[in-house]
Amino acid sequence: MMPQWEIKEIKAVLFDLDGVIIDSNQTIIDAWTKTAEEYGYKLSQRDIDNYIIGASHTFTLEHILPDQPEAVRKAFHRKVDRREEAASYALIKGVRRFISQLEKSEVRLGLVTSSWPGKVNTVLQQHQLNVFDCIITRNEVSRGKPDPLPYRTAIERLNIEPAFSLVFEDSNNGITSALAAGMNCIAVNNRTDKSLACITDFTEITVGQDNLLCRFYGENHGIGWRSKV
């Protein structure tokens, strides 16, 4: 069923990486959980939901290792990074087709992620997705998600007002970041905020002319909903 959502005019579409473009959440959870166990910590589901998925590493470390010195946090984080870099990742269903459709329009594309350049470049090269006009990694900002700074930095570089931007995010931290930056947001496999449109994956959304959720600025076509076949 078509969700009830006001049509917005869009000039830029921005994506998170983990859980939105690549199916990586379980890999991330495993990397943090196994490393925590090596340091004598057991992470709860609340820790995972609130402090790991979609969050910056500094935000995560402040909450799960609050009493540890900076040297210990850095060593911990290096182990997490190595585990993530050693993994391989599949694309979220439908995302390649959807991005290819967007490339044919006048809309600009952005990637805003809590991951680091090494991982981002590997993933984009592996899947031949070097299509983004702007890429913001954790190295580009002093404060990561759920702070709005990553998305504010992206739209400043794209020179586009927040109201004309659409974000695809899967985590509560990422959604909080995008909304706090004043941007429109569609949730991916996350129905926590009932006021947001939500897709399970990108097979449910397309670029066309019918039943538009978001219309590209100055054009009759845009991003619309379609039911799975």
From TrEMBL:
Keywords: Metal-binding. InterPro entries: HAD-like_sf, HAD-like_SPP, HAD-SF_hydro_IA, HAD_2, HAD_sf, PGP-like_dom2. Gene3D superfamilies: HAD superfamily/HAD-like, Putative phosphatase, domain 2. Pfam families: HAD_2. NCBIfam families: HAD-SF-IA-v3. This is HAD family phosphatase. It comes from Mixta hanseatica.
